[in-house]
Amino acid sequence: MRLLDRLFSVSVVVVALALSGALCPAAAPGPNSGRKALETRSGAVEEPAAPYGLRCEYLVAPLGIDVRQPRFSWVLGESQRGASQSAYQALVASSPSLLSQDPGDVWDSGKVESGNSTHVIYAGHPLASGSTYYWKVRWWDQDGRESSYSHPAEFGMGLLSRSDWKGEWISGGNELRKEFRIPAAVESARVYVTALGYYELRMNGHRIGHRVLDPAYTTYPKRVLYATYDVTSELEPGANALGVTLGGGWATLSLDGAFKGYYAHPALLLQLNVKLRNGHELSVSSDRTWKVTQGPILSDSVYNGEVYDARRETPGWDRPGFNDSGWQSAQAVPGSQGVLSAEMMPPIRVVDEIVPSRITHPKPGVYVYDMGQNMSGWAQLRVRGPRGTRITLRYAELIYPDGMINRDNLQSAKSRDVFILKGGGWETLHAHFTYHGFRYVELTGFPGTPSLDSLRGEVAHTAVQPAGGFFASKEILNRIQRLIHWSQLTNLMSIPTDCDNRSERQGWMGDAQVTAEEAMMNFFMPAFYTNFIRDIHDVEGPDGTVTDTVPHRYGSRPADPAWGTAYPVIVWNMWRQYGDRRILEENYDGLKKYVEFLRSRAPNNILSYSYYGDWVSLVPTPGAFVSACYYYDDVRILSQIARVLNRTADAASYSALAGQIKDAINGKFFDSQTGEYATGTQTANAMALAMGLVPHGQRGDVAGNLYNDIVYYHNTHVTTGFIGVRWLMPALTLTGHPDVAYELATRTSFPSWGYMVKKGATTLWELWQQKTGPSMNSQDHAMFGSVGTWFYKALAGINQQPGTAGYAHILIEPQVVEDLHWASGSIYTLRGMVSSSWVHKPGVITLKVAIPVGAESTVILPSEPQWTNITVRESGHLVWQAGQYQPGDAGVTGASQTPAGIAIQVGSGDYSFVVSG
User: Fold this and answer.
1) pLDDT given at position 623
2) CA–CA separation, 917 vs 897, rounded Å?
3) DSSP type of residue 150
4) Are 183 and 284 contacting, i.e. CB atoms less than 8 angstroms apart?
């Protein structure tokens, strides 16, 4: 069963429960494990549940990190309503046995009076390079009751300084090997490895780890990421061997007329550190004593695919005792002199296998497999044939009416894999150092007649875990949500790419900024975006400019303002979604420098330069207006960040600048007589409304124009590009028209998301139009996926209180619209699960809410417009009647009538509200 099929076949609650275990292995016994009865004067009382879901730098048991003061987070699973943490104690030790002997020998926080269970900063002894540490935590609840300690977790340190690396960059071939001897039994062993390009690591005949297309794509001259592997069980006293296969990846890739490769050839940097049980240590590093050759991979290219000649395989080359006398000595090369950083995010992995839905035979010798799903990865071929048989797989997203594959939209990418058989039996073959975006695979050169079982699709992308789920009674919404999931996942290839198919696949910042919030709701993204923000910082120039793509391969410097805004937008979303203060601190100077660059290009407070405007719109909006709005938004975000960081002078200064920009935009682009911005497009009016640019007293005029343009002038259809649609749905909801947003979301006629579904799309298109010719028309772009944010925030109603972060202060405000009978959403946050699920039947609305421990929430209860005397019950208890709050329900602390509806104040826990009138 496919990955997304599995995801969509379970309920939101099941997904949530799976996350608490799958994301946090230490949580396997569950939140109530380890409880014991405490005797009090009122009788036997259970102690609070032990913390679970322990994380270090967002990761579960990371093996190699290079943060000298890592941050810890944990989840509190107490079932009692209104529970909160009043204190915690964290212990860190150098061994499991020492950890069990409280206190920790490395750090004992002591009892810290704090409600904080996220981003707790390590403050113990200096952490040593290459060492492993073990930690646990306990907490005290609001009544002072103490929990048991959590199950222990661990984290390992990487190599913390360049001087810790003993090896040198080596090259000379794509297969490299080194034999060495271990003189005694092994206590522990770690391999630290990276490449300029890609690598696969082997030891004593075994593949090490499950990473593919590693390391992540970076600006290699400035930074290269390395991975850490525990190879203790792979080593044995006596002879041992290391083997590495190299591929060029993004480090060597060139594209005529667009960019040149960073390096002519891939290179390896590796270090194996071994601790022996006799107390001695040894190290094996990449140097000129390694032997190299050209292996069976004859060529590899991200765009063009791979040519693999199985006849060149040399069994045993990664084992000790192999005769490598015909191999050459490795060459030392300059490599990258940039920073070596630990790869502290989920790696790219093969996450699923797809069985083709059908196979056709459109021409003699040509077989076309339909995977039934547009995907990222490659095909695995199982075949038996004569030695020297040449088999070609070509990949495509589309087919022609005659059944042949349509590759017109792939630009110059060959997107093919070639395999030459060694003969003599069954062979299983797949690419190693390339990937493709495809639904269809054309097979030619196959010896005999293939079957459906001859080929499988291997789905590969950055292995982020699901963090959210959304379902609704309107099936078209679920189908769109499925498109969003697949499009987002298949475009997470260590950076957020625009597409996974043609000769591009770049980190376009415009695509990244409009989808970031949606991605953070659907998937657990903090480690991924921490890395990408660092990538952006790496490309920032001394003058504050950033680039359209990161790493910079396509596009311009300076970036289009609607693209460059990804820097402040994603940093701000990391604060809002995860409460990450450190990322604000680390990037504040860079963000300030970026905003000051924009200021230098904004005479009279209007930033007008633009390359793309509202990209792929149906009705164009002036690019100067789009840029001016993003300048305002960037300054506003910077002022908010300064306020969070207590930089009061900057906060006031940039807030004042934002006000000046707002006045300038209104003076230049707003027609107060007509109530329209710029040319009156959906994008122009929606951006002004959603960003808060509209002068007081005229919001109704602008909102009315937006409503009329959508409903009357365009028969309730969108005309925006992907920039505008990011603002369109929230603008409609903010101005009291969630029903119009809902109609846009459920349309199946052109142009709409539902139109893509109706036409058979399995991922989101690059264009609203269905185009299949030789032009810019990728069938897998995530950029229109911003509607997914609206699913969670409007239909499910999961929001945060203004001015808050990290889901500590939650706002549940679902929009009960038209013919939608029910909707359900959940997001697994660092604090735990937040969920909202409602059912609307005539005369009654039921809303179920879950709030994690340590958070509180305002729940805005929906109602029918004609109701006059509203009654609210929670789990059978009366909480609102005759316009008055009825106290006494556990966890409910208050209620009031507001313009938005009846607002119920609740603490943590599960609640079931029934509203009638």
Assistant:
1) 98
2) 15
3) P
4) no
Q: How far is CA 122 from CA 85, 108, 296, 436, 630, in A?
A: 19, 10, 47, 42, 37
CA pair distance 794, 611, nearest whole angstrom: 32
What residue type is 612 in one-letter code?
Y
Active site residue 818: no
CB within 8 Å of 243: residues ≥ 6 apart: 175, 176, 177, 201, 202, 203, 317, 318
Tens-digit pLDDT profile for residues 782-803: 999 999 999 999 999 999 999 9
pLDDT at residue 244 is higher than 90: yes
Beta carbons within 10 angstroms of residue 280's beta carbon: 11
Q: Are 571 and 560 in contact (CB under 8 A)?
A: no
- Report CA 786 to chain centroid distance, whole Å: 14
Catalytic residue among 179, 766, 813, 874: 766
DSSP 740-799: HHHHHHH--SSSSHHHHHHTT-SS--SSSS---SSSS--S---GGGGHHHHIIIIII-EE
Contact 52, 830 (CB under 8 A): no
What are the tens digits of pLDDT across the range 419-432?
999 999 999 999 99
Q: Using CA atoms in the order 613, 614, 616, 618, what is the torsion angle rounded to 10 degrees?
A: -120
Q: Is-contact 665 632, C-beta < 8 A? A: yes
Strand boundaries in 142-185, DSSP class E: 153-156, 170-171, 175-182
Torsion of CA 59, 60, 64, 69, to 10 degrees: 60
Alpha carbon separation from 567 to 540, 574, 632 (Å, rounded): 10, 11, 14
488 bridge partner residues: none
57, 154, 504, 874: which is the annotated catalytic residue?
504
Tokens of residue 4, six digits = 């997304």
Q: Would you say residue 14 has pLDDT above 80?
A: no
> Residue 775 — pLDDT band, cuts 50, 70, 90?
confident
Catalytic (active site) residue 518: no
Region class of 793: left (phi > 0), else alpha (psi between -120 and 50), else beta: alpha
Q: Which two tokens stand for residue 702?
A: 């602008």
> Hey, what are 384's tokens?
């038996």
Q: What distance in Å separates the CA atoms of residue 832 and residue 19, rounded to the nearest whole number?
A: 10
For residue 45, what pLDDT is reported? 59
Phi/psi for 865 (5° steps) reads -60, -35
Q: How far is CA 822 from CA 94, 235, 602, in A?
A: 51, 56, 47
